[in-house]
Amino acid sequence: MVSGDVAMRNSVNTTGSDNGSVYEMARLASAISPTQAIALSQLKESQLTLGEHTQNKRQPNNVFAKLVSMRSDVDNIELVKLEWTCGRDPTLDLDYTFKRLDSNDHLYRILSRKQFQIVHNFDTGVTYITDLSRNGTLVNKQRIGKDRTIVLSNRDSISIGYAKYDIFIFEQLNTPTYPKELTDKLIMTSVALGKGGYGRVIMAAMKSNFDKKVAVKILSHQTLTSSIRFSQTIVKPEDIENEVCIMRNINHPNCMRLYEVVQSIDRAFIVMELVSGGELFDRLTNAEHHGIGMGDDLTRFYAWQLLNALSYLHRNNITHRDIKPENILCVDRNVYTVIKLVDFGLAKSVEGDGRMRTKCGTPAYTAPEMLTSSKEMKMPYTEKVDVWSLGVVLFMIAVGYPPFSPDYGDGEMDEQIKTGKYIHFKFDLEILQANRRPTSLKLLTSPWMSGEPIEKAKKMVQTYENNNHFVY
Questions:
Q1: Domain range for residue 37?
Q2: Is residue 255 part of a domain?
Q3: What keywords would UniProt list here (predicted)?
Q4: What total of structural domains would you count in the chain?
Q5: What is the DSSP annotation of 94-139?
Q6: Considering 273, 306, 322, which residue would you say is the last residue of a domain?
Q7: Are residues 73 and 212 in the same domain?
Q8: What's the sign of the alpha-carbon dihedral 377, 236, 256, 287?
Q9: Residue 215 to residue 205: CA distance in whole angstroms
Q10: End position of a domain, from candidates 273, 289, 318
Q11: 10 and 113: one domain?
């Protein structure tokens, strides 16, 4: 056990040869204190993981859709059952039996004993239709094919036997409307992946292949304010376009990919890569790692991927400016997995000397050069603010609690950051002075970024890249 301030070795040792020494703090750490536990839990308040699945609150006895009859001799039908089957044979267990159609005897004769089945998934909000007939069921004048299943969309027409025999319009209730540019390619579900001040994120599937899933971030021009721009002004469509143009140019396996942006009058729809492993923060706060960290190997495994992403961004003159565990997503639930930087809402593409002045980011991860004693004075800073934030993240991965917090009782958090004082531990990084702070590329090529965990990370990222080429 080690108590008090422990002088830590340089977590990005560019001169020493001890590749793993940065993570000795994970082994030297004493049990997390109640104050540190409070600080860790408060970092998570009001956060919703991008990987979290919110449960649909609808009950199965609700009407979820209607079949609006297009014929005077066929009833309008409210769909309540999750599986609904129709046909003309009264001896079968059908939910709706077609009576003899006086207006068209030929249409009645081509109806099958079982014509089609509609199945609704309340979890995803998606409705399917399966053709069970001998003479055919058509949706929007196109034959489904016997025993084949397709997705039903709001206002789809259903025909029997021939395109001219329209019988129903499928009308889904409480269905959000989406731009045609989206619905031409995607099946929009009601699966919520996350929400916040910016709007919400839902899952969608490619119409060309149901197995290919994407995430769609829906931003309201009226509500997209402080979460991205720290401004109370209404965000215009061109403002969102300026922000996502950075993501358009990012192509790296450790950064979230953007596929398309569709604008409407009041909303923007950002179609992105879908990952299902949740936030890195969730792993830090679970019972296994809470207050003790993840150990040397796993920390270095993650560190290489984060430096891999940062060095790519910095080479391309992009500064993220909001590196934190909540903005690091895991591809799957495995312990060793590919991780991705997300949320480029505060990212900045810089030219010239690469200096920026806007104060932004999340306070606990903010670099000291972004903090000034006077509101009027804005000191310039560079991409090395990301390196500082990464150091804070690595500290948390290694020991399981944040280095800075207003709950520690030894001064305001800004003052803790400005003095570089880590509670119980110190990184001897000389990172208070940005001009002496190592670059992400230098850290990536330093001796401590070698060994089995690093080789494992490289191999896993390369395999993921090879197996996940996605043509949108």
A1: 6-50+279-467
A2: yes
A3: ATP-binding, Kinase, Magnesium, Nucleotide-binding, Serine/threonine-protein kinase, Transferase
A4: 3
A5: -SEEPPP-TT-HHHHHH--SS-EEEEEETTTTEEEEEE--SS-EEE
A6: 273
A7: no
A8: positive
A9: 9
A10: 273
A11: no
Q: What local confidence, expressed as pLDDT, does residue 14 receive?
A: 34
Task: Supply angle C-alpha 224, 225, 226, rounded to 5.
Answer: 130
φ, ψ at 373 (rounded to 5°): -75, -20
On whether 217 is known to bind a ligand per the annotation, the reply is yes
Q: Which residue has the higher pLDDT, 364 or 16?
A: 364
Q: 201 in helix, strand or coil?
A: strand
Any idea which residues carry the catalytic annotation? Answer: 322
- pLDDT tens digit string along 366-384? 777 777 644 544 566 788 8
List the Cα angle 178/233/376 in 5-degree steps: 145
What distance in Å separates the CA atoms of residue 241 and residue 407, rounded to the nearest whole number?
39
Q: Does 187 share its domain with 323?
A: no
Residue 445 has φ and ψ, to the nearest 5°, of -100, 10
- Cα 143 to chain centroid distance, Å, stands at 36
What are the two backbone dihedrals, phi and then psi, of residue 202, each rounded to the nearest 5 degrees?
Answer: -125, 165
pLDDT at 372: 62
- Give the C-alpha separation, 249 to 188, whole Å: 25
Judge if pTM exceeds 0.70: no
Non-local CB neighbours of 382 within 8 Å, separated by 6+ positions: 319, 354, 355, 356, 434
Answer for the pair 115, 133: CB distance below 8 angstroms, yes or no: yes
Burial of 171 from C-beta contacts in 10 A (0-12 / 13-18 / 19+): middle
